[in-house]
Amino acid sequence: MLTDAEIAKFWSAASAERAEFGALVKLLLLTGCRLNEVAGMTSGELSDDRMTWSIPGARTKNGRPHLVPLAPLAQQILGNVRETDTAAGQSYIFSTTDGISHVSGWSKIKARMDDRMKIPHWRLHDLRRTAATGMAEIGIAPHIVEAALNHISGAKAGVAGVYNRAQYSAEKKAALARWAQHVSGVIDGGVANVVPLGNRRR
User: Fold this and answer.
1) InterPro entries this protein is in (predicted)?
2) Which residues contact 9 (CB under 8 A, 6 or more apart)?
3) Rounded to whole angstroms, how far apart are CA atoms 52 and 48?
4) Apex CA 11: angle with CA 171 and CA 35, to 5°?
5) Which SS3 state, helix, strand or coil, does residue 54 take?
6) Is residue 197 part of a domain?
7) 130 with 2: CB under 8 angstroms?
8) CA-based end-to-end distance of the chain
9) pTM for the whole structure
10) Looking at the 3D structure of the chain, how many domains does it have?
């Protein structure tokens, strides 16, 4: 996972990319979603006010639909990406082909970011780990972190998952907003503006 100092370097490197690329990787960190899920985001998956993102089960690793509440920072980032209007409501958000196909070429993007970040041995999937661990460190309960990441284990695994059908919608929204606030504090001033619960420090 990335430390707070590395998150700041990551954000700076992402900001140096063209909007379609930079916004995409920033949302990996803010939402904890997988690369293919964010890259394949379409305009039809976003609510009209762009406050929520509905990922159909066909596009998630576990086959379960995932509703992602978008924190204000995530909404702001999406607002900076040029909108396209191909295939009425189904154009890709992150595209260099006017919405026809989503961006790709991750090895080249990663190589450019590596040159700026100077952080060895990290992967784009580490952003999901960073979001999960970061939320836990600022006091988000494990089962809410799992719900926010659409991850089936722990409270939702096996028999427990059969009986626990709670979606934790309000808790997910609060958790992702709190995590975005933490990230915002890190990138704005180098010090998070969310006080972690407990004694764990990074």
Assistant:
1) DNA_brk_join_enz, Integrase-like_cat_sf, Integrase_catalytic, Phage_Integrase
2) 116, 117, 118, 119
3) 9
4) 65
5) strand
6) no
7) yes
8) 11
9) 0.86
10) 1
Is 67 inside any structural domain? yes
Q: Which residues does 24 contact at the CB level (< 8 Å), separation at least 6?
A: 38, 39, 94, 103
pLDDT digits (tens, 9 = 90+) for 66-116: 999 999 999 999 999 987 665 555 799 999 888 888 998 899 999 999 999
**In this structure, which amino acid lies at residue 199?**
N
Q: Tell whether 198 is covered by a domain.
A: no
Q: Is residue 202 part of a domain?
A: no
Q: Are 73 and 30 in contact (CB under 8 A)?
A: yes
Tokens 């309000």 locate to 170
CA-closest candidate to residue 92, choices 77, 106, 81: 81
pLDDT lower than 70: segments of the chain: 84-89, 153-166, 190-202
Phi, psi of 4 (to 5 degrees): -60, -40
Full domain range(s) for residue 108: 4-189
| C-alpha torsion 45→130→107→23, nearest 10 | 40
* CATH number for position 87: 1.10.443.10
| Dihedral sign from CA coordinates of 193, 199, 200, 201 | positive
Are 94 and 28 in contact, with CB atoms under 8 Å apart?
no
- Tell the residue number behind the tokens 């576990």, with chain if given: 62
Task: Say how far apart CA 115 and CA 109 lie, in whole Å.
Answer: 10
Question: What's CA 84's distance to the chain center, in Å?
Answer: 22
